[in-house]
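seq:
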Amino acid sequence: IKQVNTPASSTKVTNKRDQQKNGTKNFEQLMMAGSNMSPTKQVSEKTAEDKEEVKKPLPPPPKEFLYSDPGVKIGNGKFGPVNLIIQDGKLWALKIVPKTTIDKTKRIEHVKNEKFILKMLRRNSTRSELPALRSGASQRNGTRAGRRDDAQDDSSVEGTSMSVRENKEPLDFIMKLKETFVDEENVNFVFEYLPGQDLFWILSNEHNLNLGKDRKRKDWVLFYGAEILCALDTLHSRHIIYRDMKPDNVMIDYDGHIKLIDFGFAKQLCERNNFRTRTNCGTIGYTSPEILLGLTQGYSFSVDIWSFGILLAELLSGSLPFEHK
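struct:
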């Protein structure tokens, strides 16, 4: 995470005269430079200079960070707010993680993991195939994955995911990280801005949604479930375990497709450990038995499939399947 020096009081970028003078002279230096002139001449020349500066186009904003001040709050993360900002002339989401929160919760590794995982995914963005589908019924029958005339596949999450992935890149279902930076008080993540809501909101407000007369809950659960499965495949094919699947972490983008967010619990597994890990983490209600029991042999990618099943059950029924057990 690169260190950026920003003012402690405000992150707003101001249009100062020293910026227009390439940062070499400020107002006092200009006055000292004109000390050999008469006071009248100094004032007249300075006035002319000010008029000339008004006519000049403003210098381009610095490449670093141009914020709305103080930023429009659009959400709350686990440890801090998420603000809407302007950067490079576009809207972005600024996730702010206070350093004090990181120290108190010993969340340093989670912050590092989130940056590492998302940066690594962008560097390695090759298309992948869903392992479960390679030996699926569609291939055994010699049909093309996702064909609309395959009635059996077309009515399942697995079959729908085959159709969805034909028109989407594997990383389209994962939130994009633009960059990270550190100021005096916070660790900051600049993400793509998603104007939609998360699945938790959709689940809570389904009765207000205009789904059409013939659209039922099963239809949108099937669609979103297929895209979530594609997102998990993208991670697992790169040996990344997610470990925090829940409605709150599935956002809907401008075009109505899902975006997986919050990679604080994500981790890349390695072959020397047989692609297994033992860390106890996740969200109660969605966490798999292997994690809760703390098995000595650890767990692997299957815990994400368990959480995915819990999520599907909740989207279909409106409640967690094992909430009272």
